[in-house]
Amino acid sequence: MKIKQLLSISFVISLLMTFYPHAAFAQSPTVNLRQVFEALQSTVRFDATNKIITAKRGEVELAFEIGSNVARKNGVTVIMDSPITIDSTNKQAQISVYAVYPLAKDYRRERQYIVQAGDSLWLIAQKYRTTIDLIKQWNNLSSDVIYPAQHLYTVDPYHVVQSGETLYGIAIKRQSTVDEIIAANNLKSLQLSIGQRLFIPPESSIPPPAQLADGLFPLIDRSYVPFTNDYGTERLFNAGAAPRVHEGIDIFASTWVPIFASYDGKVLRKGWSTLGGNRLTIRAGEQKIALYYAHLVAYAPGIAEGAIVKKGQLIGYVGSSGYGPEGTSGKFVPHLHFGMYDTSTSTWTPINPFTYLKWWENQ
């Protein structure tokens, strides 16, 4: 009888797995929907009558229904891996750690288009509803020849100053830096006038990296300050101590800005490091490359040593932890320290992640 019962139970489970493939798996790790989207500077509202939550940020407008795994992104249906739930303790809406990135990400190429293999100026002009002549004018092209990984403007590269705008704000909005805009426009001061036309210089075209070219940038667009290549610069931990070499790139952002996995992989290390604070090391797929995220204020649910993470999964939040015993924070401005290491040798070799980050940033 027991054998028959076991076979019967096994048969039922097989049926469930066939018709409801997610039925046998636990609910995805979730985070507070309002907190995570407000950290991305979204305006979040709740319609209690219809049980609808909306989150608006720039050109991205999202709508969620309590108890449903269907979201709407700018009116388009998006199926999430699990439904929006209500936490029994704080009564706040919860969203899957896998759903945040694809919903929050603004995939429109606001500044530049990266030329793909097989592209032509005619195809790009058709895609962006402009003309070949304008694309050539905006990009100072003397011929119709373009090449893969080349950056091209698909809109007018000039910015017209509006009331209340600053160079700093324009630089963030147009993915540039204050210094680049000053140099390109030969500005003598930081003062701007309404209606002033500023040329936003194009970024240098960057070829795709030899590996991990399909990775993604660990922060959502416009949630961080434009970063520079500070890999290899000197750092001091304690006054009077010998300087050390900076083995990564610092990306400055506000505390609690969400951090996402740049690649599928396995968590190799999680926990406190004197220099890195709350840090996370994830092996990139099956490759001998480790991705290092440091100075987190907190980890996302579901993150543990040995855990498998997916590209785009919410893994933690920007902070200023580190430079002391466990719990130390506030010794520096909040930022994400992102590092990469070649793990093919017993002593991991640091890799400059700058070109990887710049490539991912524009995908």
Question: What does this protein look like?
Answer:
The protein is of the alpha+beta class and about 375 residues long. It folds into three domains: about 25-105, Copper Amine Oxidase, Chain A, domain 1, CATH 3.30.457.10; about 110-200, Membrane-bound Lytic Murein Transglycosylase D, Chain A (Roll); about 235-360, Glucose Permease (Domain IIA) (Distorted Sandwich), CATH 2.70.70.10. It contains eight helices and 24 strands.
Give the oligomeric state: single chain
Which bin fits the share of residues in helices? Answer: 10-25%
For this structure, the CATH topology of the largest domain is Glucose Permease (Domain IIA)
CATH superfamily membership of the largest domain, which one? Answer: Glucose Permease (Domain IIA)
Q: Supply Rg.
A: 23 Å
Mean pLDDT, rounded to whole units?
86
* Classification by helices and strands: alpha+beta
Number of strands: 24
The CA-CA distance between the termini, in Å, is 59 Å
Note poorly predicted spans: 1-25
Describe how the helices and strands are arranged:
Layout: H1 2-19, E1 30-32, H2 33-39, E2 43-47, E3 52-57, E4 60-65, E5 70-73, E6 76-79, E7 85-86, E8 93-96, H3 100-104, E9 112-114, H4 121-127, H5 132-138, E10 151-153, E11 158-160, H6 167-173, H7 178-185, E12 197-199, E13 234-235, E14 244-245, E15 249-252, E16 258-260, E17 265-273, E18 277-284, E19 289-296, E20 298-299, E21 308-309, E22 314-317, E23 335-342, E24 349-351, H8 354-361
Antiparallel strand pairs: 1-8, 2-3, 3-4, 4-5, 5-6, 7-8, 9-10, 11-12, 13-14, 15-23, 16-22, 17-18, 17-21, 18-19, 19-23, 20-22, 23-24
